[in-house]
Amino acid sequence: MNDVLVEGKAVCVRFPGPRSSNRFARRGQADALIDIDVRVAVGETVGIVGESGSGKSTLAKTLLGLVPRSSGTIAWSGVAAPMSAEGVRRLATRDAQLVFQDPFGSLNPMMTVLSAIAEVLRRRGRTRRDAAAEARSLIEAVHLPASSLDRYPSEFSGGQRQRIVIARALAASPRLLVCDEPLSALDVSTQSRMIALFIELRERYGMAMLFIGHDLAVVHQLSDRMLVMHHGCVVEQGAADDVYLRPREAYTQKLIESIPVPDPAVQRARRARRFAASGR
Fold first, then answer.
1. Residue 16: what pLDDT?
2. By CB count within 10 A, which of 8, 43, 66, 113 is most buried?
3. Is 194 within 8 Å of 182 (Cβ atoms)?
């Protein structure tokens, strides 16, 4: 049995625009992704990190068929996807759900939480009664009270709305949850609680995750493997501990050093641990 859920090989995306700084770029086009190899196995969490504009979100959207690729191959559960974005989207829709950075923009402000979640369940053949019961179970799974179902998105905080979006995504029984910067708009304490929730849900539902972020420390906590992107290329990848604790590439090291630490003593200790772990 093929245990690879989604795999991309030599994936390239080019957008019309000024000539890229990359000498291999075509005239009049900008390279958004350059020969990317990526795979996510069943039940695995893969983190994608890098600065803004590095191509993280473009890669995820290309794998989901939301952005057309210029070349390369994409396969879902071993089935090769057509070149068209629509063809990729048809395959991805069966297995994947996307959680965006802005939860409020992902929710219809005119629909109650119950309606938003039940809509997904009804499309999957649930009766009205069963959809309501399952929506209650899902909203409790993300640690919100059942009374939340009768309320509207505007009545919740940002962290609570993100939980609602996750509950709605879970209603589709995804094998892969693609999380595109889902924590960046949240404060530090809320981020910590959301990290714990993602870990809990991953273990409870046994789903794979593609987790995108710019904070290596956060992504490291959630990931089995990590990819580091820069200017549309993967500059380093490997086991999460290896990438975070023993980075090989100078760019990855700079990203780690840029993580804000309020206490200088803690920062020095962290550098000392990485130096010791590297064996240098």
1. 80
2. 113
3. yes
Assign residue 254 the CATH number of its domain.
Answer: 3.40.50.300
The span from the CA of 9 to the CA of 74, in Å, is: 7
Cα(239)–Cα(256) distance, rounded to whole angstroms? 16
Rounded CA-CA distance 198/277 in Å is 28
Structural domain for 215, as ranges: 4-19+26-278
Q: Residue 19: pLDDT above 60?
A: no
What is the domain count for the chain?
A: 1
Residue 111 near residue 76, CB atoms below 8 Å: no
**The sheet that has 29-41: what strands, in order across it?**
29-41, 4-16, 71-76, 79-80
What three-state secondary structure class fits 121? helix
Measured in whole angstroms, the distance separating CA 119 from the mean position of its chain's CA atoms is 23
Residue 152 sits at φ, ψ, to 5 deg, of -105, 155
Determine how β-strand 45-49 pairs with β-strand 71-76: unpaired
Is 0.70 surpassed by the pTM of this model? yes
Which structure tokens are listed for 36? Answer: 């990317």
Structure tokens at 38: 């990526």
